[in-house]
Structure formats: C-alpha cells, structure tokens
Amino acid sequence: MEDEINLTTPDTDLSERDKLLVDIDRALKIYYSVALVTVGTVLNILSIVILSRAAFRNSTTSVYLRYLACIDMFVLYNGLSRHFVSGISGYNIRYLSEAFCKFNLWSSAFAPDISAWILVVVTTERLMSIVLPHRVRTVCSKSTAAAAVIVITLIIMASNLPVLFFFGDQQVREDETNLTVTLRCVILTDYETFMNKVWYWLDLLKFVLLPSSILTIFNIIIIIYVIRSRRRVEKVVATKTFRGRPNSMTLTILKGSRHAQLTSGHPDFTTTTVPNNCVSGSNKEISLTITLLVINATFVICNTPIVVYFLASQYWFPPGLQPAERLTLTASIMAMYTNNAVNFLLYCATGSRFRAEIRHLCSDLRNAGSSWAASSRLVKNNNTSSEVLKSNHLDDQMVSVMGSMESFYTYQ
Domain named G-protein coupled receptors family 1 profile: which ranges (predicted)? Predict the structure, then answer.
C-alpha cells in the first residue's frame, strides 16, 4: 500500500511554507515512528501475555488475537524502520540491494493484508457464535483457528508474490550525457502500466476496501442480533396461573443478584427464578462483541486516509506541490500503522474480562515479588545463622587447642 514520492526540487529552492512541510514530514518519520514502535511493542507483548493466561487460553478468539499481535509487531518494525532511517538520513534502505528491495516491498504488502483478514476471520466467528450459537462449537475450535491462520497467511503471501517481479533495479541511458544510470528499486518498465492501472487497485481492494466492507456488513448484523438478544434477556415472557387461568406477562430481570427473581408482586402469582449465569454469560458475549466492534471500527478509521490519498491524490496535488503530497502520504501511512499499535488499549477500554485479567496479572506479579523478597530474606538469615554457628565452632576449636597447648607446656 505504500508509495514512494521523490522530491525533485532541492531544499534550497523551496519556499518557507514547503520547508515547514518538509520539516513536519521528517519529524513524523523520526519521532512518531519511534513512538509507535516503542508503544506498539510493549502493548502487543502485553496483549500476548494476557491472552495466553488461563482465562483466555482455551478461547479460539485468543488464538487469532495473539497471532494478530505478532503480525502487528512485524508490520511496525518492517514498515516504520524504513521511514525512520529516511527521516534521519534521507536514505531509503530499499536501495541496499535489489534482493532486499524486493523482499521489503513484498513483506510490506502481505503483512498488513494478514492483519486485516485476521480481523475478518475473528468477526466471522463472532457472527457465527451469535447467529448459530449451537453450531459454532462444532465448527470453531483451537485447531481450526490455527489451521485458518496458516491458510490465510499462505494465501496472502502467495497473492503478493507478483510484487517480487514488478520492482527492481533498472538501467537507463540519459540523453543529455549519454551515460547509463542505474535506478534502484523502481517499477520496471515492462510492468509500469499494469502496476498503475491494475495492481494498485487490486492492492487497495484486498487490503482495505474488501475487508472494510465485510467488517461493516458483519458488524451491522452483529449489532442487530445483539440488540435483539439483549431485549430477550432483559424481558422474559412467562405464562402464569392467576386464579386458575393462564395469564401471559412480561417480567424484567433484576440484575446484580445471585438469582434474578421474576415476580408480579401479586400473592396468587408463583415466583420464577432465572439463574444468574444466563445473564453473566450474555454479558460476556456482549463485552467481547463490543471489543471486536471497536477494533473493526478503528481499523476502518485508521486506514481511511490512505484510501482517500490513493483515490484523490492525482486531483489534489498537481506538479509543484510535492512537499505537501509527501506530508499527506506520510501522515496517511502513520495513521495506518497506528492501527497496529493500539489494540491493547482497545481491549482495555472495552473488555471487562481483559481488565480483570490485567489486575490478576499485577496481583500475581506483586505476590511473586513478595515471595521472592521473603525468600531472599530467609536465605540471608540462614546464611547469617550458618556464619554465626561456624564462628562459634571455630572459637570452641581455638579454645580447645589453646587448652591442649597449655596442658602440654605444663606437663613438660
């Protein structure tokens, strides 16, 4: 999804406004890239740790989300390292060699695609669990989740293999000097028309447009089903017997008690008890659904700028406004990478179980720290006691030796 724009105008010929835009562009590449990589690494590692604990370990969703965290870290390091070096030195690391150019372009293409389609698979599973709750247990398991991850990865990596042939080093002859110049990591002439008219649109479709459309449609269906389910949970239609005659009435579940007591308040009505685990189970499902909805919405929002740029840049940026175009592209790319760094914050903001597990982890770490400190003090005390015993034993031996010597000299 990334493109490379080269400034053809020297910095000395730029206006003050364009120089400011170039400085902002460089600052984004240096400081924002470092911030995203640092924060993204810490948060994604925390996501993997939390999702690997007992509370989430057996969930198929956690399999996808742990893999998503790993892919997100790869996306951040693979993509932002190039922008950081470019901001620091102005050098494009893709110029190191033709092989590295091809690999970096290929990995920069397939890694974000995998991240997007993992979200699609997770949302599909969530939709199945809501629409077909009895069938999802037989279809979705940890083994099928692992198989889905492998299949998605292989398909997406294979679908981006053409990038390896589209880019490379190319030799051109300059008419003015009649010299042969090597252009590094550029679109090869044979594929230039196909890249500009076909491939960029296919790339845009498989990375953003198609996943975003699927996520939006599935999210709408999920929201509709969640609202209906919530209404069914909060209102239970029960048939009662009132003075020997059946009577139908709607009763509201009282949340917060161990059992929700459903009663009309009339002495002739019997009391119906609904187990609280039905309510708590529904709340867990809704909490997970809200988390996925927020993650999907964040994906669409963060990737919208890059879509708008590729669709409208040719109309917005005529020749001569290259610094503005470069800054717009950099800002759009940074927004895209932000999505790969903030999922942990979204889990915390929307997932009550996730927040509870963080508290449990902190408690376990505190207990482990206290146990380690207590063990250290115990070992230290034992060592001190051993040293005292050894010292006393040595003193006794010295007294015994001195007594023997005194007896010897006295005897002589």
Answer: 43-347
